[in-house]
Structure of 4-deoxy-L-threo-5-hexosulose-uronate ketol-isomerase:
Amino acid sequence: MTEYEVRYAVGKNEVKAMDTEDLRDAFLAGELMEAGKVRWVYSHYERFMVGGAVPVAAPLALEAIDPLKAPFFLYRRELGIINVGGPGRVVADGTAFELAFKEALYLGTGNESVTFESLDAQNPARFYLNAAPAHARYPNKKVGKCDAKVLHLGSSETANERYINQLLINGVVETCQLQMGLTELVSGSVWNTMPAHQHDRRNEVYFYFGLPQGQGVCHFMGEPTETRHIWVKNEQAVISPPWSIHCGAGTQSYSFIWGMAGENLDYDDMDKFPADVLR
């Protein structure tokens, strides 16, 4: 079963007049992971799609949705998958890829049949999904954590010590525009990105996970001098427009997946805004 919703682009001037519920309606993807379903949010920022698939008793199919106007989902798109649950399997045009916790898979445009399966119904896989338009076909590729490019940034003194696992990124996997990775905060650190940053040529989506019941992350967005915030629970995501900063602080340590698409593949193409210039 597949469900979806469409989010239209909102400009920075409109955001200045939004209240809490308006912000959440526009930028929070709050219910991505539901047992027995594939769920999507189709965003008009870079035509980026964020979703989740949680197969339990039976496999789930990757189905085209009406906004794509396509005979199958990956007709003109590429797909990134990261498993944040139990062991699972993705089958793409007859080739099976098994994904353990925090392992990733890239599927290029042209794959007609894709299914998601859990290897243990009592501990189902939880596949987090990002999709972007694609202009060329690149090979499918599984990326385990041992295959990732890992960056160690921050410090305990600034509460932002973290390991950035670059999984589906230029230099590890060939993609058209999609990039994804997984950041793990060291115990005691709570800031996921500091200084805050934005990149005018890409959108970005943060998906937060590993948060116990009762804990949360305050995600910051908006212009550097007109910041706003959204409180996020476990397995929820925030869509960041190209004009918006993004960073967040949690009530305890956690992990998050970042995914982005746009006109370039330069990971470091960003403008940084230290805490003393934010308002």
The helical segments are 12-15, 20-27.
